[in-house]
Write a structure and sequence with these properties.
GO terms for molecular function: 4-alpha-glucanotransferase activity. This protein is of the alpha/beta class. The protein has a domain of 62 residues: Immunoglobulin-like, CATH 2.60.40. The chain is built from 19 helices and 25 strands. Strands 20-17-14-11-10-25-24-21 form an eight-stranded parallel sheet. The chain has a five-stranded mixed sheet with strand order 3-9-8-5-6, with helices on one face. Helix 1 crosses helix 2, helix 4 packs parallel to helix 8 and helix 11 packs parallel to helix 12.
Length: 643
């Protein structure tokens, strides 16, 4: 890079290089830097444009008396020397209260309450993130992760709904579980029958209507795998009938109050859904006049299709009401944490969130990962990243509101790919240039997490697996954010597993995840077999993979005492680890072989489609679940009153 482009890229937080998994230093090209700067809204397509942008940013920085944000402790007065004297300004608290600030070269702030406040000094704003220094570690406990979509059995058909989740949660609570973990339940794409991955959401502040429980009815179906297109069509027809009946009965004051409280954000989302019914699920394919929520054509559409917009608002109300009922059942049944929800790392670039809340996102790029041994061309996840500079200008409210929405119902929240708090790998959508890392405002993001978790009285888990930036795990621990410890990965080297006392205390431990083989599948090398069957692995790699897995199984068995596919000894091992929380996967408890999702596949593996073999209402009393609960109790993870 030339001096100007390099200085601008550095100021914007674009890394000049990274080290790949072979130890090779990979520089960021000029073309990549220009594309990523454009994605941030920083013109740099020519050297002259880059110079103009750099000069503007440097002038703005020189003008500021304070940085863009400060992190403070609740209830503690603070003292801030200014870069230059000011004529005063005002402090605006989160609740709208305003306080004048005196002129001078030093800013003295009073003790402030928890929250996100702002200072206004001579036209410049500084965000005040008033957060406790750390979240408390949770009491030792355990829970069960399960596939919400799979809660119905083969005989029942359809896919799992929030009523199934309520029944499963009540039973698991009675068995002694402290939480029930789910994949993301963000709003998806109802008008695209084949878009059902929970990790490619349309909007992370809204909920998935696919799981709404019908009133007094269930959808019929059959087969071991879910037929999403057919079931979605039939669900939509039944929901429309229920909405017609709801209107005929005069509606409900609770719905009207909720809708009014949700305000413009809900109206934008519901308008998007109504537009998607008419023009298709992804706004990039819509007529250009409809591609921005504030366009006159959108206002006209909303007025002309008020009932369709109301219908989609009602669907959100139904979803939140039913999910809230599950959370209430969990609390009343004595669960410490209740629902363990999952926040996806990004949102679909052409879904409802970028259309209705797009100011906070980078455009023309996707989150991804650099090339490695498994993905020699790198990975593009088709997820829009937050623009760190836009987030700062918006006082981090888009991120805070995204957390807050999940924490309405979750006592435990997982943040997918928390490595992105430190740096995120951005790839141009057309892949004409390679990707590069972009620095994220880690300390500010962690402060926002502490604020929102403290408000909700919740515990937060950061999924810190993969190529971990130096120092990030220490910062997570200092903030009280738990890490993830996956037993099948906890190895010094091949087959030499960490002992239970060596596990991180501030963590949630599990044997695997939804992206990994089940206990039985792992022992059999089923994931290796599947990759060979669908052509990902050669014959040689297949046999080498099975040999490697056999060595891992021997190593884990030697440490844990496991001798068969029975999960008891594996569960005993997990119950004894030093980590505060343990998650047992329901597929492991029930002895299932196939994994929920095989990364790197779309149509060649039935991802997110497998039904469980035990009805939701029978889970709590199932002998395998009761046995797992007994093991957790024996290892000291029981709670008072369970059993």
């Amino acid at each position: 890079m030339n001096d100007v482009l390099g200085a601008l890229a550095d100021l914007a937080g674009i890394h000049f290089d990274y080290w790949d998994q072979t130890g090779t230093q990979v520089p960021t090209s000029d073309g990549t830097a220009r594309r990523l700067l454009a994605a941030m809204g920083l013109p740099a397509e020519t050297d002259d444009a880059a110079r103009e942008t750099l000069d503007r940013l440097l002038a703005e920085a020189a003008r500021r008396a304070l940085p863009r944000w400060l992190i403070l402790e609740p209830g503690q007065p603070s003292h801030h020397p200014l870069a230059r004297p000011t004529d005063g300004g005002k402090l605006v608290l989160e609740d709208g209260t305003e306080m004048p600030l005196a002129a001078g070269a030093v800013l003295d702030l009073p003790a402030l309450p928890l929250g996100i406040h702002r200072l206004e000094l001579e036209g410049d704003a500084t965000t005040l993130l008033v957060a406790p220094p750390s979240l408390p570690l949770p009491e030792p406990g355990w829970g069960v992760t399960l596939p919400l979509y799979g809660l119905r059995t083969e005989a029942e058909g359809g896919f799992g709904d929030y009523a199934d989740l309520a029944r499963a949660t009540e039973g698991l609570a009675q068995a002694g579980a402290d939480f029930v973990g789910l994949n993301p339940v963000h709003a998806g794409f109802p008008s695209d029958p084949n878009a059902f991955s929970p990790y490619s959401p349309s909007h992370r502040r809204r909920f998935n209507t696919m799981h709404i429980a019908l009133e007094g009815a269930r959808l019929n179906g059959g087969g071991a795998l879910i037929d999403y297109p057919d079931t979605r069509l039939r669900l939509r027809a039944r929901l429309e009938d229920e909405f017609t009946a709801f209107e005929a009965a005069g509606g409900a004051p609770a719905f009207e109050a909720w809708r009014a409280a949700e305000g413009a954000s809900l109206e934008r989302f519901a308008t998007y859904q109504a537009l998607a019914d008419r023009h298709g699920p992804y706004w990039l394919d819509w007529p250009e006049p409809l591609q921005h929520h504030g366009a006159p054509a959108v206002t006209e559409f909303r007025a002309e299709n008020a009932r369709a917009v109301l219908f989609h608002a009602w669907l959100q109300w139904r979803s939140e009401t039913q999910l809230g009922h599950v959370a209430q059942i969990a609390r009343e049944a004595g669960m410490r944490y209740g629902l363990y929800l999952d926040l996806a790392v990004g949102t679909h670039p052409h879904g409802a969130e970028t259309w209705s809340e797009g100011a906070g996102f980078a455009t023309g790029v996707s989150l991804g990962a650099p090339p490695d041994a498994f993905s020699p061309d790198g990975q593009v996840w088709a997820l829009a990243p937050f623009n760190p500079h836009a987030l700062a200008r918006m006082h981090f409210r888009p991120f805070a509101e995204t957390l807050r929405r999940q924490l309405r119902y979750a006592g435990l929240l997982r943040i997918d790919h928390v490595l992105g708090f430190e740096r995120a790998f951005w790839v141009p959508d057309d892949r004409a240039e390679p990707g590069a890392y972009v620095a994220m405002p880690r300390d500010a993001l962690l402060a926002v997490v502490r604020i929102e978790a403290t408000r909700a009285g919740a515990t937060v888990v950061g999924e810190d697996l993969g190529n971990i930036p130096d120092g990030l795990q220490a910062e997570l621990a200092a903030s009280g954010v738990l890490g993830c410890r996956v037993a099948m990965f906890e190895q010094y080297h091949h087959g030499n597993f960490r002992r239970p006392e060596e596990y991180t205390e501030a963590a949630l431990a599990s044997f695997g995840t939804h992206d990994l083989p089940t206990w039985v599948g792992w022992r059999r090398g089923r994931d290796v077999e599947v990759r060979h069957e669908i052509g990902i692995l050669s014959d040689e790699d297949y046999h080498n993979g099975l040999d490697w897995r056999a060595g891992e199984v021997r190593g884990f068995d030697a440490l844990s005492g496991a001798e068969s596919e029975d999960p008891d000894q594996m569960h005993c091992f997990l119950g004894g680890v030093r980590s505060r929380l343990v998650a047992l996967q329901l597929e492991d408890i029930l002895g299932l072989t196939e994994q929920a999702n095989l990364p790197g596949t779309v149509d060649t593996h039935p991802n997110w489609r497998r039904r469980l073999t035990v009805p939701a209402e029978e889970l709590g009393g199932h002998p395998a679940v009761r046995r797992a609960a007994e093991i957790m109790s024996d290892t000291g993870r029981n709670r008072v009153g369970s059993g």
